[in-house]
Amino acid sequence: MGLFDRIKRVVGANVNDLISKAEDPEKMLEQAILEMQNDLVQLRQGVAQALASQKRTEKQYKDAAAETEKWQRNAQLALQKGEEDLARQALQRKKTVSETSTSLKTSLDQQTAQVETLKKNLVQLESKISEAKTKKEMLKARITAAKAQEQLGSMVGNMNTSSAMAAFERMEEKVMMQEARAQSVGELASADLETQFAQLESGSDVDDELAALKASLAPATPANQAQLPPQQQETSNTKPAENVDDDLADLKRQLDQL
User: What DSSP state is assigned to residue 227?
Assistant: First the structure.
């Protein structure tokens, strides 16, 4: 393939692409119907001209036929009067007019057929234009719907749905983490509270046991024991009290070791 042929093909392809992109369906439909209507006007004019020509030829044919009959009568009259030469001349004129009449009849038949064809084409074109107008409205509605759908698809395509959903999922994950932390804190608080109550119960048992030990270790005071003077009584109570403190200290050490 030559260089110029390649350049021609490339240029032709680019021109066709530009034309295809420049075509507006609605405008093209309007233009098509306008062209069909112009063709209809021209066809009607052609039909009118053909009819006029047919009428003229038909008149000429009728005149020629009438003149042929006239010269036929003239030839008969001349023979009746004994004018044979005159009759021969009449027959000669009849022959000439008859040939013209035959030619006009052939032309008239052709024009009649042509007019009938033009009339059929006219009816078909009118029907096509009516159908085209109906289709045009339907196609315009489809074009409008297609444009709206294309615009909607473009809007949906431009939406950053994946990013928005990712952000939504991140926020959902944060909420779930916060709920989990709150649940953990609540469980820890509940555990601490149970531990405190358990310690209180344990401490209460120790205190009760300590009180019981104190009661068991307290010296008994008989009713008939003589009351000693305060100094002697203090002296007598000092040693048992010291023994109790020692026992209490031993018990505390034992408790600490538990």
Answer: P
Does residue 50 contact residue 115 with C-beta atoms inside 8 Å?
yes
Per-residue pLDDT of the chain in tens (258 residues, 90 and over written 9): 555 555 555 555 554 554 455 467 777 878 888 888 899 899 999 999 999 999 999 999 999 999 999 999 999 999 998 899 999 999 999 999 999 999 999 999 999 999 999 999 999 989 988 888 888 888 778 878 887 887 777 776 665 556 666 777 777 788 888 877 777 776 666 666 667 666 666 555 666 777 777 788 766 544 444 444 554 444 444 445 556 677 777 777 776 766
Distance CA 150, CA 156 (A): 10
3-state SS assignment for residue 82 = coil
Q: How far is CA 207 from the centre of its chain?
A: 82
With contact defined as beta carbons under 8 Å apart, do 75 and 90 qualify? yes
Q: Which residues of 191-224 are buried (b: 16+ CB within 10 A; e: fewer)?
A: eeeeeeeeeeeeeeeeeeeeeeeeeeeeeeeeee
> What is the CA 122 to chain-centroid distance, rounded?
42
Enter the pTM of the model.
0.46
